[in-house]
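Objective 1.3, modelling of assemblies. Example input:
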Amino acid sequence: MLYEQELKTFVEGTTNFFEIAAQQPASIGSPYLMEGPPSVHEYTGVIKISGKREGVVYFTAPKAMLTVLLMKMQENDFSHETMKDLVGEVANTISGNARRDFGRDFVISVPSVLSGEKPEFTQKPGQRSFIIPINWRSHSAKLVVSLT
Amino acid sequence: MNGKDKRSFKLMIVDDSNLMRRRIERSQQFEELELVGTAADGVEALELFKRTDPDVVTMDITMPHMDGIECIARLVAMKPAIRILVVSALADKATAVEAMERGANGFLNKPFTDRQLNEAIAELMR
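Predicted structure (C-alpha cells):
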C-alpha cells in the first residue's frame, strides 16, 4: 500500500524529471487509485521493485510526447529503439530517485520496455495501483505505482 | 591531472541507455577529454577498458550483467589512478557512499543539467 507521503515522492520525482531533463515543467494531475492495471500508451517503461517493498513502477507515454521530449533533449533520433530507451530511462530515473526517501532497500530492476501492451504483474491481495496523470505541453502520460 | 596540462585524457562512458551515453558525450565540454568508447554494462566496460585504458569514466549503476558498483571496484583494482564519476538515478546516500568506498571519485544524480555534468567532471579532473 502506498502512503500519502510516499505518493508525494513519486509526484516530486516526476516533476523534477521534466523540469530538469525536459527543461519544461509538467503539471501533475490528482493521483487516483485503480483496481487492476490501467490502460497504457504506445510506450511503457517498467521497473520491478523488490526488497522491503514489492511491485512495479511504470511510465507510459505516447510516441508524440516522447518525440517532443527527445527534441527538447537535443536528440534527432526518433526511432522505435530510441523511444524505448527514453521511456525506460524516465521510469528508471523516477524510481531511482524515489530511493532518496525509500532507502536502498527499495531495489529497482533494470528497465524493461513494452510497446502497446500492458505490463503483466501479480498484485498481492489488497494491492492497488496509483495512477499519477502527467500533462506536459499538450501531451498526457501516466506514472503508475503499484507497491505492497 | 590538472587543468594546466594540455595532454588529452581518455574518457569511457558506461550506461545501459544509449540516450544517456549520447547525452554525456554531447554535453561534456572538455577539449582535453577524448572519448575512447562507450559501454552498455559492466562486462562491456571491462572489455573496453582492457582495449583502451581510459583515464576518466562516467559510470551508471543499475545495468544488466554487471552493475556499476562491481565494475568500479574492478576498474580501480586494475588502475588505481582511474577517475570515476558515478552518474545514476539512485538517490539514496548509502549508494553514493558505497560507490565512493569502492573507488568512485564523484557522484552525480540523474536527472542533471549540462552545467551540473560539467561541474562534476571538472571536480573529478582537479
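The interface with chain B takes residues 16-17, 20-21, 73-75, 81-82, 85-86, 88-89, 92-100, 102-104, 106, 108-110 of chain A (CB under 8 Å).
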